[in-house]
Amino acid sequence: MSLRLGDSAPDFTANSTAGEINLYEYLGESWGILFSHPADYTPVCTTELGTAAKLKGEFDKRNVKMIALSVDGIDSHHGWVKDINETQQTEVNYPIIADEDHHVSELYDMIHPNADNKLTVRSVFIIGPDKKVKLIITYPASTGRNFNELLRVIDSLQLTANYSVATPANWQHGEDVVIAPAIKNEDIPAKFPKGHKEIKPYLRTTPQPNL
Ligand code: BEZ
User: Fold this and answer.
1) What is the value of pTM for the model shown?
2) Which residues form the Thioredoxin domain (predicted)?
3) Which end of the chain is more exposed for a tag (fewer CB within 10 A), N or C?
4) Residues 199, 101: one domain?
C-alpha cells in the first residue's frame, strides 16, 4: 500500500553522491524533503536540481535537509552533477540517491507503471522531525516542480505544527492565517493577542502568530 499523510516515513540506507546515507541518521532532528526525478541527463530534471541547489540556503533556514533520487547509477549522477553545475550556474549541495535496485522507489511508491514502468515520477515527500510524512505531491515527468511552492508549503507546515491555525489559499509567509475551527471564540484573545477578524463564525483570521 502506498504511503499516506501521517504515516512513518520508511527508513532506508542507500548509495548517494555523498556516500552511503541512512535517512533517519541524515535527518536527525531536522525536517526533510525527499524528491525523485525520472532520469539524469534530461532537460527538466537538470533545471530542477539546479534550482533546488540555488535554494539550499532557504531550505537550511527552515531546518530542512534535501535528498534527491533517481534510478540512475552513482557514476551517472556524478557526471550529470558537473553538467548541472555548469548549465545552472550552481553547485549541487545535497545528496542524490542512486536507486538502481529500486529499493527506495518501491518503499515510497515513486514508480507509477502506467506513466512509466522503469523510471520514477517527480515525487515529493516532506518529512517532519517526528519522521512522519507531512506532505506528498506527485508531478509527471513533463512538468518541472516549483521549488518556491515547496518552500511556501514548508512555511505552512511548520507554522501550523506549532499554532492552532491553518493557511488559506495562496497564502504566503507574512499574510494573515485562519484560526482553527476547534478554537472557541472566547479563547481567541489569549491565543491570538494580535487580534482577529470574524468574517463568518467559521472563518476567522488573525495575523501570522510567529512574527
Ligand atoms: C526531463 O527531465 O526533461 C524529462 C525526463 C523524463 C521524461 C521527460 C522529460
Assistant:
1) 0.97
2) 3-159
3) N
4) no
